[in-house]
Amino acid sequence: MDNQTQNRAKQGVIFALAAYTMWGIAPIYFKSLAEVPPVEILIHRIVWSFFLLAGLIHFGQGWHSFREVMKNKTKMLYLLASSVLIGGNWLLFIWAVNANHMLEASLGYYINPIINVILGMAFLSERLRPIQWLAVALAFIGVAIELIAFGPFHISLSLWLVALAGMAYCVKRLTLTLKPAYLSKP
Asked: Whole-prediction pTM value?
C-alpha cells in the first residue's frame, strides 16, 4: 500500500469516526429541542446543510462538477427524489427521538447498512469480498440479538427509517458517480 492510499485510508477512518460521533450526539441535541416541532428542526437542518455543503463545494473546488449535475435534468430529478427520501428519514428520526422511540430509531440505523448491502448487490451489481461478508454476518447477528431481546414490536418504525434511507441511497448511487474534488487532488 503506497503512502497516498494509506493517507486516504486514515482520512476515511477519521471521517467515519467524526460522522459516527456526530450521529451519536445528535439524539441528545434533538432531545434538548423537544419543545420545537420536528418539522421546524428539519427545516433548520436543511438550511444549515445547504450552507455547509456550499462551503464544502467551494473549498473543495467542486463547482464545475456541481454545474454539470445541475444541467442534467434526469440527475436533478433523481437528486430531488433522493432529497425527499432522506428528508423523510431525517424527519422520522427527529420525531422518534422526541417521541421517546430511540430504541426503534437505533434499530433502524443498525438494520440500514445491511439493507444497503442487499440493495447494492441486487440493483447495483456490487460484490462483497469474504471479509465484507463476515462484517455483514456480524451486523446481522447483532440486529437479530437486539430483536430477540426487545421483541419484534419495535421493528415497524425501524423499517420506515431503513426504507427511506435505503431508497435514498439507491437513488443517489444510480444518479451520481462523482468523485469528490478533494480526492482528485495530487
From this structure: 0.71
